[in-house]
Design brief:
Length: about 230
């Protein structure tokens, strides 16, 4: 049957459209963006301090990079970045917890990504116990600075996050709003560290450049549209 006759008979039938996720527009390419996730493979990523992505808890599904359960390990980029802008979409499961880190060192002196890398928190603020701590809520500079704007989306809904790092000045955005601003090494930042869980970690926030990391906190979390540009 002719496609136009089908549409006339069934006016609410829609033709399928191509998936626009995990792609770059001509404008973005011109601006210097490049993808860190191609939508179907884990190319460009590896488990922290291990070769490749060998754990089945990390998988690609329906154009997303998905942690299904605890045991996948924290994923880090193969590349290191210094001055950059990162953007990505995430959604978290009910009562879920995760995070995005930057300036992560894989020196074997440090046994976890959070021993060196500052974190932008990912959380179900209402359902997870950490939600009762303001500096642990989604969009926060984890354990140091309270998010300036509360998360309004529910578990299972997509959020767009950004991390901008330029000459040690850091800005977090979540769904178009600035949630945290700080300068690594500043007196204010040093005071925050001394009042946090990181005060006994000499490498925390001290790296000039490093890997970007996605956290395995044991809860199901999805990522897509992960892209970065140097600035």
């Amino acid at each position: 049957m002719n496609i136009y006759l089908i549409l006339a008979a069934f006016p609410f039938v829609f033709l399928p459209t191509s998936d626009k996720h995990n792609t770059l527009s001509k404008k973005e390419i011109k601006q210097g963006w490049h993808l860190l996730f191609d939508g179907s493979t884990t190319k460009g990523w590896h488990v922290f301090q291990k070769p490749g992505v060998v754990n089945p808890q990390w998988k690609t599904e329906d154009g997303t990079l998905l942690l299904t359960e605890r045991g996948g390990g924290d994923l880090v980029t193969d590349e290191e970045f210094e001055n950059f802008e990162l953007q990505l979409d995430w959604k978290i499961s009910e009562k879920g917890n995760s995070g995005v880190f930057f300036n992560v060192s894989e020196d074997t002196t440090y046994k976890s990504v959070w021993k060196t890398g500052p974190e932008m928190q990912i959380l179900d603020d209402e359902g997870h116990p950490d939600g009762k701590f303001p500096s642990h809520r989604a969009g926060a500079n984890y354990d140091l600075e309270v998010s300036k704007h509360p998360l309004t989306k529910k578990p299972g809904e997509w959020n767009t996050a950004g991390i901008l790092v330029k000459d040690f000045k850091v800005t977090y955005t979540l769904n178009g709003k600035v949630t945290a601003e700080y300068t690594l090494g500043s007196p204010e930042w040093e005071a925050q560290v001394q009042n946090s869980k990181f005060k006994s970690m000499p490498g925390y926030g001290r790296m000039k450049k490093g890997h970007i990391a996605l956290q395995d906190h044991g809860d199901k979390v999805w990522f897509r549209n992960i892209k970065v540009r140097l600035i």
